[in-house]
Design a protein that fits this description.
alpha/beta, binds zinc ion, 8 strands, TIM Barrel, single chain
Length: about 290
């Protein structure tokens, strides 16, 4: 058969390569957890992901996943909003925790591991408004570390939009002066006003499975208007699986559900969503 009689699509039938920018691996899933999830993700076309920490066990797992899959997994390490109390109970407290975080970033870089970002970090006044002051202090300290390392940050914000923006602003200004992006607001569930202020600071906005939920019309309306060069997708594995996988334990392979929803909302193709979100993630995380 002459070569030109092959249907042309057989050479490019799958241009969809997805980048899940927010995956938590848990120690309780065991060693197979990482291998199973990364393998199933690759089979679904999700061939790049950021393994995100937030406490010591998750930071360890993020690094372990990146070591095993250096071509497709990069770690973000840091301390989440519930960590001030946990760190305070260790000897040396928060200061020692931050020193250890810096040492880890330096050690990883020395070993040739590309650290994608610091995080996740941020503020959550839904679950723990009573610890607002220590949350803000830990967030601010990590923003300053990120600046020292020239790394973007992965930010969580729940019912804390004003404080999040106030703390991000000076960091974002300095990032702009340095010609780089400050980072991403992950699992965005805010309104248009919050999105506009984040975009003005230079941040990217990442949508999770929540954007696919039946009652998420206002969120989909925000997602429709995020500029092409500022949008990311994520699963936030293992939580909140997107439609059509609701009820299952979430995993990176399911980020295709988020992409399909955004394609519909933004009146474009899944391929195009895969392409722009992958380009944006690679540029932000330097991978
Ligand atoms: Zn997370």
């Amino acid at each position: 058969m002459p070569i030109n009689s092959f249907p042309s699509h057989s050479f490019c039938y799958d241009m969809r390569m997805f980048f899940d920018t927010h995956v938590h691996f848990h120690e309780t899933d065991g060693d197979r957890g990482i291998d199973d999830l990364v393998t199933r993700a690759a089979a679904a076309g999700v061939n790049r992901l950021v393994a995100v920490g937030g406490d010591c066990p998750m930071n360890r797992m993020a690094v372990e996943a990146a070591r095993r899959y250096p071509e497709s997994v990069w770690p973000a390490i840091g301390f989440d909003r519930d960590q001030p109390a946990a760190l305070a109970m260790e000897s040396g407290g928060v200061a020692t925790g931050l020193e250890r975080l810096s040492d880890n970033v330096r050690a990883l870089r020395k070993q040739g591991v590309t650290v994608a970002a610091l995080g996740e970090m941020g503020l959550d006044y839904h679950y723990s408004a009573d610890t607002a002051d220590v949350q803000k202090a830990l967030f601010e300290a990590q923003l300053s570390l990120a600046e020292d390392f020239g790394l973007p940050v992965v930010v969580h914000s729940r019912l804390a939009d004003d404080d999040t923006l106030r703390l991000l602003e000076p960091f974002a200004d300095r990032c702009r002066d340095a010609g780089r992006s400050p980072g991403v607001l992950h699992c965005f569930t805010g309104d248009q006003g919050f999105a506009d202020r984040l975009l003005a600071l230079g941040l990217l906005i990442s949508f999770s499975g929540i954007v696919t939920f039946r009652n998420a019309d206002p969120l989909r309306e925000v997602a429709r208007h995020v500029p092409d060069d500022r949008i990311l997708i994520e699963t936030d594995t293992p939580f909140l699986a997107p439609v059509p996988y609701r009820g299952k334990r979430n995993e990176p392979a399911f980020v295709t559900g988020v992409a399909a929803c955004l394609a519909e909302v933004r009146e474009t193709t899944v391929e195009e969503i895969a392409r722009i979100t992958t380009d944006n993630a690679r540029a932000l995380f330097g991978v």
